[in-house]
Specification:
Elements lengths: L1 E8 L2 E2 L3 E2 L3 E8 L2 E6 L4 E5 L2 H21 L12 H25 L6 H6 L8
Antiparallel strand pairs: 1-4, 2-3, 4-5, 5-6
Length: 126
């Protein structure tokens, strides 16, 4: 199993419902792309990333529908085993590191340290 990507997605069911952000781990196992929703312990697969995510969305929809039909919404949150969360966190950290370096090289490193020092730092929410 090779970890490819850690992403956060939302599942939209028509105009009826949009999920909160869900943690998804994308791996490649042999010639198959596997997606795992770590919040619901639902997984799926496809021949490429797009197919695997589309299939995961349908699997999550069925998972939620089953919980509704069985009046089991209280137990819908079912986090994946710690090994998958560790893989997600490691991959997300790698991705953030690359993104951080890329953003610095495109903006801050182009300016002088003196100009950078004079600017105000602000907090925004992602």
């Amino acid at each position: 199993m090779k970890t490819l990507k850690a992403i956060r997605i939302k599942i939209k069911i028509g105009e009826l419902w949009v999920s909160p952000a869900l943690h998804v781990l994308l791996t490649r196992e042999d010639d198959v792309f596997v997606t795992r929703c770590l919040d619901l312990t639902v997984s799926s697969h496809g021949q490429n990333e797009k197919d695997a995510l589309r299939s995961l969305a349908e699997s999550i929809k069925e998972y939620i529908l089953t919980a509704i039909e069985k009046s089991n919404i209280e137990n819908i949150y079912d986090p994946a085993h710690n090994k998958y969360w560790i893989m997600f966190n490691e991959q997300e950290t790698k991705q953030l590191h690359k993104s951080f370096k890329r953003s610095l090289s495109k903006s801050v490193l182009m300016e002088s340290p003196e100009k950078f020092e004079q600017l105000t730092a602000e907090v925004t929410y992602a």
